[in-house]
Amino acid sequence: MPLIPLDIPAGIYRNGTELQSSGRWRDANLIRWVDGTMRPMGGWRTRSDTAANAKIRGLITWIGNNQDRFIAGGTYNKLYTWTSQGVRHDITPVGLIAGREDAEAFTGYGGSYFGQYAYGVARPDTARIQPATTWSLDTWGEYLVACNEDDGKIYEWQISNSTPAAVLTNAPTNNESIVVTEERFLFALGAGGNQRKVQWCDREDSSTWTPAATNEAGDLELNTSGRIMAGIRVQGQTLILTSMDAHVANYIGAPYVYGIERVGASCGLISNKAVASVDKGAFWMGNHSFYAYAGGAVQQIESEISDYVFSDINRAQISKTFAVTNSTYGEIFWFYPSGSSTENDRYCVYNYVENTWYIGELGRTAGFDMGTYRQPIWASAENNKLYEHEIGFDYGSLTPFAESGSIALGTGENVMSVTEMIPDEKTQGDVTVTFKTRFYPNGEERSYGAFSMSNPTSLRFTGRQVKLRIDAANLADWRVGINRLNVTAGGAR
To answer: Which CATH number does the domain housing residue 154 bear?
Structure first.
């Protein structure tokens, strides 16, 4: 009886049909691969028992000059900070204009005249979608600077828990977002209501915005057909992403101060928060693809899960999509609302170290990487609380799992019989295995298991194709390698 190794490559393949995922992992949750070996993601625990008043859409952590650590996050109508002990402070600026917790679109029911279109037929794309309110947060030295696109003003918080954030003196209003450059200029993006304008203050002086011979304040207007959505620091440059293309701002000194050039076309950002930066460059989600910039020109990233993600995403609430880095494992997470959800409930991950992709289901609305704190801190979509991630193996009601696509047991028309499995685990019994068989690609599926792993594990099933599902049995840091099946010919069918 020959032993067939189930040597399934790392990562998820979810493009096309199930049969096209043959020999690959097709579905998973809370699973990652490190050096080709499957393992569970870390769990999470509550960072602060005091929740925000609504969904947090923008989060940052930083260290003050006296070594105190802070967390800041914004909702559609509030701005908060949390101390390292988890104490929340409301620093909402006086007169802040409330935005929207959900995107508002008027192309569906009620968005046109009664009786003009058949029931169930999408209305024309003639109305402007009002996105969910998100915050652009950065630090100016030890101070917090903040802006959201609905209020448009730039605020500064000077580390006083009893004092709210205040409007930054002389700064432009009606801005889309902000970013502080490596050279210590504060950029106002979409400044003054001009969706293509980049305006910056004098170096090291966030109160001086009017250009003069004695300062380096200035502005430029991008040559783009899109609107500016976000800016991010990347390898000594400032990357500016619009809804259509990508530009970089390079410091060139007086008298022009900054030069801006376009580095990518047809690579627009899908939402204001869907971009993240690491030492290898910036990564973002576009409307139908993923992109990266590491100097030079924008590159489209080949993705093995793009068909699944972009056919699944709820485009009416796409403005809630956000990216967050998990640098410990070389990962970029994108959380997004699925087609059946109005809130972020799924994620996809690009591991830029191993060039693999994975997917899963988890409700998070904002996040920030480790560094200031030992673990990444992400905001929950369920209760608006902050959680520390990658700590322990408690997942609430969720269980890590991975399921393969169909794997051919034999060749030609032969039906094969499986009698046992020789498992490959770090610790025996940490996972269970379930097999799902079919005789035809779209035929009836039969399930066998779940089996507790033993050495060997006795099995008895037949089929032309089999899917393998691994489920965590213990809340532990388990590993699964190359399992092997004992397979014999079972005749034709």
So the answer is: 2.130.10
